Amino acid sequence: MIRPKLQIALDHNRLENALADIKKVGEIVDIIEIGTILCLQEGSKAISCIRQMYPDKTIVADTKCADAGETVAENVARSGADWMTVICSASLPTMQAAQQKIKELQVELYGDWTFEQAQTWREIGLSQVVYHQSRDALLAGGTWGEQDLGKVKTLIDMGFQVSVTGGLALKNLSLFQHLPIFNFIVGRGITSEENPMVAAQAFKDEINRIWGE
Ligand code: 5RP
């Protein structure tokens, strides 16, 4: 089975704080995400700055784009992003327009998406989805559980590379142990810890423990 990658989500309000954290964990993680919050606060400056620091890492702009796919994709790609995200409720033309301008497009799954919709994403050639528990759902008492496994498995069976995210803690990873998860995306589970480097390494070690080195 494939070994999942580890993606850090930089959801800082200020670029300087994001830079302080990425300096601690940049060499440990596989993928660096300029989170939605940081994109909104600091825009393309954040992407280009982190691209300069990490020329060889995969960088994702978590734009959760809903419209103007071509322009948004062009802008983030020019700043140095390899991948970007669109929200699942974006129209197919928005996704297709974005797809033309960026190496990889990820569909962020929030709210009332359906597997029929997901099939249309496959049909236009998309291969990545991000299975998400929203911050707000988690704050309202939601947790990771068996209900998520079934949906993630169906998406994998449809041919998607599935990333998993949303308030992930170390203890959540084993829930997915029998599935070829593409990527675990972790924000606060690393950046809010007293020692982000130790926290990032602990996620890496747990992935290696469960899925093998
Ligand atoms: C918020 C996001 C976050 O970047 C993602 O969920 C990871 O952050 P955390 O681990 O802190 O929940 O996409 O919309």
Automatic annotation (TrEMBL):
UniProt EC number: 4.1.2.43
From which domain of life does this come? Answer: Bacteria
Asked if the Swiss-Prot or TrEMBL record annotates the protein with the keyword Signal, the reply is no
Q: Which Gene3D superfamilies match?
A: Aldolase class I (3.20.20.70)
> Sorted alphabetically, which Pfam families does this protein's record hold?
OMPdecase
Q: Which reaction does it catalyse?
A: D-ribulose 5-phosphate + formaldehyde = D-arabino-hex-3-ulose 6-phosphate
Single Gene Ontology BP annotation:
one-carbon metabolic process
Cross-referenced InterPro entries:
Aldolase_TIM (IPR013785), HPS/KGPDC (IPR041710), OMPdeCOase_dom (IPR001754), RibuloseP-bd_barrel (IPR011060)
Stored SUPFAM superfamilies: Ribulose-phoshate binding barrel (SSF51366)
Molecular function GO terms recorded? 3-dehydro-L-gulonate-6-phosphate decarboxylase activity; hexulose-6-phosphate synthase activity; orotidine-5'-phosphate decarboxylase activity
Give the top-level enzyme category: lyase
User: Which family is annotated?
Assistant: Belongs to the HPS/KGPDC family. HPS subfamily.
The protein, known as: 3-hexulose-6-phosphate synthase
Source organism of this protein record: Candidatus Enterococcus wittei
Species classification: Bacteria, Bacillati, Bacillota, Bacilli, Lactobacillales
